Amino acid sequence: MEQTQENRTRVLVVDDQYLIAMDLVCMLEQLGYSPVGPAASVAEALATLARDGADLALLDETLAGESALPVAVRLQEQGIPFVVVSGHVRSISGNPLLQAARRLEKPLTNKRLAETLMLLRDLRK
């Protein structure tokens, strides 16, 4: 049975680098997910999440020099599994929530993204 847009897993994309965000959106679509966003700032991410909701999230650790911690906290409060997508192997934040989060190092491959999203979906069940 083919998935319709309505029953696809919605993935919030939060990244302040436009080309990376659009690449993530394309990868998600190719993998059969429904991208939400992208959002380029903390305020935009929180507004998008409140307006559109999400099942999972891909979160850059810093957004235009600002910590993405408020977004991570909101995702955790709503029980939405997320992964930090970063150019850094380790967290550059001193916050335990971001330090403990599952991480994907940029640049991503479809295979690594697909595997990680399947793990996140399992956490959501």
Structure report:
By secondary structure, this protein is an alpha/beta fold. The chain has a single domain, classed as Response regulator (Rossmann fold), CATH 3.40.50.2300. The protein is built from five helices and seven strands. The protein has helices spanning 18-30, 42-52, 69-77, 96-100, 110-124, and strands at residues 10-14, 34-39, 56-59, 62-63, 66-67, 82-86, 102-105. The strands form two sheets. Strands 2-1-3-6-7 form a five-stranded parallel β-sheet, with helices on both faces. The protein has a two-stranded antiparallel sheet with strand order 4-5. The longest helix is centred in the C-terminal third of the chain and has 15 residues, at 110-124.
Topology:
Blueprint: E1 10-14, H1 18-30, E2 34-39, H2 42-52, E3 56-59, E4 62-63, E5 66-67, H3 69-77, E6 82-86, H4 96-100, E7 102-105, H5 110-124
Parallel strand pairs: 1-2, 1-3, 3-6, 6-7
Antiparallel strand pairs: 4-5
If you compute it from the alpha carbons, what radius of gyration comes out, rounded to the nearest whole angstrom? Answer: 13 Å
Average the pLDDT over all residues and give the rounded result.
Answer: 88
Q: Count of helices? A: 5
Q: What is the name of the CATH class?
A: Alpha Beta
Q: Count the strands?
A: 7
Question: What separation lies between the terminal Cα atoms?
Answer: 21 Å
Q: How does the helix and strand content classify structurally?
A: alpha/beta
Strand content: 15-25%
- The CATH homologous superfamily name equals Response regulator
CATH topology: Rossmann fold
Domain count, please report it: 1
Q: Please give the CATH architecture.
A: 3-Layer(aba) Sandwich
Largest sheet: 5 strands, parallel
Please mark out the parts with pLDDT under 50 across 5 or more consecutive residues, or reply none.
none
Order of helices and strands: EHEHEEEHEHEH
Which strand order does the major sheet show? 2-1-3-6-7
Can you give the helix content as a percent range? Answer: 40-55%
Outline: globular
